Automatic annotation (TrEMBL):
UniProt xrefs under Gene3D superfamilies: 3.40.50.360
Native organism: Paenibacillus sepulcri
Record key words, sorted: Flavoprotein, FMN, Oxidoreductase
Keyword Glycosyltransferase recorded: no
The organism's place on the tree of life at top rank: Bacteria
Nucleotide-binding is among the record's keywords: no
Domain NADPH-dependent FMN reductase-like, chain residue ranges per copy: 1-144
Record-given protein name: NAD(P)H-dependent oxidoreductase
Length: 179
């Protein structure tokens, strides 16, 4: 089983820090789990414009192929203007409707205000539904106060939520594979 962590931003390190923490925790829970990180900041993904998939650049095609090869996901985004990042939305637009079908997604949000956690409930979970994915019941929302100056998570409550989310993704994905 392969878990893909997606950091859906072109700027900053907090989102990647939380995504990586969930992926690392999942690896501890299931040592046989294969993991990969897709950090959109390191890719030159083109804007989705409806052209033939083969006509996009190598980074765009590779990112989509990485997503299609995964069995479960932890997807993180910073919250900008009460919405997910444009980079993550663009990746979603590039994917075929079957990309997440019957797979587990756990969501992460990072933001500057405490109210932005609602983006996970009101935007990300409905997108997962559109893709016919299953979502982990819990999610992680981290505010700037939950990090130290090196963008490491220092808040005990957030660390507990990371453990819970990793556990749900692993358990739910195993359950789906068993059927």
């Amino acid at each position: 089983m392969k878990l893909l962590g997606i950091s859906g931003t072109l700027i900053g390190d907090k989102t990647l820090s939380v995504v990586k923490s969930v992926v690392d925790q999942a690896s501890i829970l299931d040592p046989e789990l294969k993991t990969e990180l897709l950090d959109l900041k390191t890719c030159s993904i083109e804007f989705c414009d409806g052209r033939n998939f083969a006509d996009y650049n190598d980074d765009t095609r590779r990112a989509v192929e990485i997503v299609l090869a995964a069995d479960c996901f932890v997807i993180g985004t910073p919250i900008f203007q009460a919405s997910m990042s444009g980079a993550l939305k663009n990746l979603f637009d590039l994917l075929p409707i079957t990309a997440f079908r019957n797979k587990i997604i756990g969501f992460i949000g990072t933001g500057g205000t405490y109210q932005h956690f609602l983006v996970i409930e009101n935007q990300l979970k409905p997108i997962a539904g559109y893709f016919r994915a299953f979502t982990a019941p819990d999610y992680v929302y981290a505010h700037r106060e939950h990090f130290n100056e090196r963008n490491e998570i220092v808040d005990a409550g957030i660390l507990e939520r990371i453990e819970a989310l990793a556990s749900q993704i692993v358990r739910m994905s195993r359950g789906l594979r068993a059927n």
